[in-house]
Fold alanine--glyoxylate transaminase.
Amino acid sequence: MKDLHTRHQAVLPDWLALYYDEPIELTHGEGRHVWDAQGRRYLDFFGGILTTMTAHALPEVTKAVAEQAGRIIHSSTLYLNRTMVELAERVAALSGIPDARVFFTTSGTEANDAALLLATAHRGSNQILAMRNSYHGRSFSAVGITGNRSWSPTSLSPLQTLYVHGGVRTRGPYAALSDAEFTEACVADLRDMLGQTRGVAALIAEPIQGVGGFTSPPDGLYAAFREVLKEHGALWIADEVQTGWGRTGDHFWGWQAHAGSGPPDLLTFAKGIGNGMSIGGVVGRAEVMNCLDANSISTFGGSPVTMAAGLANLTYLLEHDLQGNARRVGGLLIERLRAICAHLPAVREVRGRGLMIGIELVRPGTDEASPDAAAAVLEAARESGLLIGKGGGHSTSVLRIAPPLTLTVAEAEEGAAILERALGEV
Ligand code: PMP
C-alpha cells in the first residue's frame, strides 16, 4: 500500500504543494493544539489557515453541529431556514453597514465571486480595480482580481482588472515614503487609474493582505480611497476573509482601521466564522444586494449545519471577548517576537495587528527575500511542535502567525520560544 502522501496525487494537481518535506496528516485537535497520525502534538499558530477561529473542537460548536445534524441537514435556499436567518441578522448587525442584507456561500472564493457579480451588475461594468499583491481566491473571477500573480494559474479573466498601489510598500519606490506621502502617492495612482477608465464597478481590497504576507497599509488609506471612488460612483468591496471577526485586535473588521471610510458597500467574509466549517458570505447595502434580476440561489450556502456552527462560534467569540484577547495576547506576542528578532540579520521586519503577525525573512546582510529561510524555519518549528504558515509576494518569505483567538499568554510564550530557537538555527 502506497503511503498517504503518494496517494495524495490523486486529489491534488501538481501545481498544489503541501506544507513540509514530510506532510502532516492531522487526526484531531483540542483548543490550540492538533495531533498528527503518529500521535505528535503541535501548538497551532496558523489556526488551520485561519479557519479555526476560536479553538479546535470547541465543545459549543461540536454540540451545535451534532444537534443540528441530528435534526435535519438539507439544502437551504428554497425553504425557510431559522439558523440562516439568525446568523444573517447577527452578521448584518455586526457589519456596520446600514440596512444590510447577507448572502451565504460555502467559501471565501465564492463570497468574492458573489460580490463581483453584484458589483458588476449594479454598475453595468466588468471593470474592477484590485490591489497589487492581493489574494482573493481560486475561482475564474477570483484569480482574475488576484494581484499576487504567482497565485493566479491563468491570465484569462471574465473581468477587466487594473491593479493599484497601496496594499504593500515594503520594497520599491514607495518603501522610503512616510505614511502620509505613501497615502498621497497611492491616491494619485488611484485617480490616474480611474481617469483612464469609464464606469469602474468597484475596488476590491483586503484591509490587511493575508496571503501577501500580512502587510497593512497606513491607517486611513481606504478612507482616502473611498472619497475618490465616490467621485466616480465606484463601489468599495472589503475582503475581510482574513481580517474579520476581531482577529486584528483593535477592530472587529479590518476596514475600521480606516477612520472616516464609512462601512464598505460590500464586505466578504469566510474562514473563521465557521470554525472550520465551510461558510462564506457577502454582506452589503440592500440597494446593491438587491440589484440582481434572477432567481440566483446557492444550494449549499447557508446550510443549517454550517449555520449552527457559525452561530455557536460567533456567540462564543462575542461572549468571551476574543477580540480583546487578540489585542492583549497578540500585543504581547508581537512585542516578544520583535525583541527576539531585533538582532537577527535574517529578519527584515516583524509586523502585524492582534493575532495576525508576519515575520519577513531576507538573506542576511541584504534586502533580498529568502523563501529558503522561511521554509527552513517552518520545518524547524514543526520539529519542535509548532505549526506556522508562510506567505508573501512572489517569493514566499514571510512567516505567518495567526493562532486561534483563544490563545493564552502561556501558549504565546511557548510558541515564541520555539520560534526563537527555529530562527536561531536557520
Ligand atoms: N480572500 C482572502 C483574503 C483569502 O485569504 C482567501 C483564502 N486564503 C480567500 C479570499 C479565499 O477563501 P477560500 O479559500 O475559502 O475560498
Observations:
- The chain has two domains: 4-57+322-424, 62-320.
- Residues 62-320 form a domain with the Aspartate Aminotransferase; domain 2 fold (CATH 3.40.640.10).
